[in-house]
Design brief:
Layout lengths: L16 E5 L53 E3 L3 E8 L7 E7 L7 E7 L15 E5 L7 E10 L5 E11 L28 E2 L6 E2 L8 E3 L6 E2 L2 E2 L19
Parallel strand pairs: 2-8, 5-11, 10-12
Antiparallel strand pairs: 1-3, 3-6, 4-5, 4-7, 7-8, 9-13
This protein binds 2-acetamido-2-deoxy-beta-D-glucopyranose (2 copies).
Length: about 250
């Protein structure tokens, strides 16, 4: 009798976590979606060779802002504490993440909070349970529907990022502390591993952001934190803006 040999073919693309809340554009859990869901939101931007790279920041979905399919999937008062979460099929035992906003339709994204190490929470599985992260919505964000984005670098030098539309309401609580740094003066969200000449640490360290902004959540220290190498002076504008990945995997 012959045993059954199951050959598991490793895919070339291994990132595999995506923003779960707030539901990103074209995600299966986005209530405003009218098309087939995007099955690749878990994949890294630098996945699978030069012709399969996705466009930073939002895989092109930033153009859905203002469209019924791009309606807000969360409402957050400026200055409030909120949480976001991620889910997928592989947390890569951590990494470093940033969340932030664009108030100019994706032209620039500025950091709200940087999580240096242990993002995703390495010992908490593939979420969304156990993969909740708190942050403060910058108190001086203008009211309106803005782009929220999550970025993640794991120790395999993979970038993943998803964007969601979020409605920011005016900060009304009298005791809301002022923003530590004006939103317009916060650093832009960090971009690397996307053929822009900047590379994150590999295997033995988790990313320390060169410009983490005023709100930093430190990880668990399981890995040392290391700055990226290469030409990392710039930000989002340096990233790859080539063709979208589509279904070419
Ligand atoms: C969502 O993704 C699917 C699969 O890639 C695609 O067919 C569809 O056009 C996308 N929807 C939007 C609104 O871009
Ligand atoms: C994800 O975050 C949202 C908003 O905080 C929360 O309502 C939801 O319960 C979270 N999901 C899980 C599985 O914790």
């Amino acid at each position: 009798m012959f045993g059954i040999t199951i050959i598991i073919l490793a895919t070339l693309c291994t990132a595999h976590m995506q923003l779960n809340f707030p539901p990103p554009f074209n995600a299966s859990n986005n209530p405003h979606r009218t098309t087939r869901a995007d099955p690749y939101l878990q994949y890294p931007y630098n996945c699978c060779g030069p012709h399969d790279r996705w466009m930073y920041p939002c895989r092109g979905y930033e153009t859905l802002l203002g469209d019924p399919q791009g309606a807000a999937t969360a409402t957050w008062p400026a200055g409030s504490t909120q949480s976001w979460n991620i889910s997928g099929i592989g947390n890569h035992y951590g990494g470093s993440c940033q969340v932030g906003f664009s108030t100019n339709h994706g032209e620039t994204f500025r950091v709200a909070t940087s999580y240096e190490g242990n993002c995703p929470h390495r010992n908490n599985g593939n979420g969304p349970d156990g993969q909740n992260f708190d942050f403060t919505v910058p108190a001086d964000l203008p009211a309106g529907v803005h782009l929220f984005t999550w970025t993640w670098y794991n120790r395999e030098q993979e970038l993943n990022s998803n964007c969601a539309a979020v409605e920011i309401t005016a900060c009304i609580a009298a005791d809301t502390p002022p923003a530590p740094v004006a939103f317009a003066s916060r650093p832009e969200m960090f971009v690397a591993d996307d053929v822009n000449g900047c590379v994150t640490p590999h295997t033995t360290a988790e990313l320390r952001y060169p410009f983490p902004g005023p709100e930093v959540v430190t990880g668990d220290g399981a890995y040392p934190l290391q700055l990226p190498t290469g030409n990392c002076g710039g930000v989002g504008v340096q990233a790859y803006h080539g063709e979208t990945g589509e279904d070419g995997h």
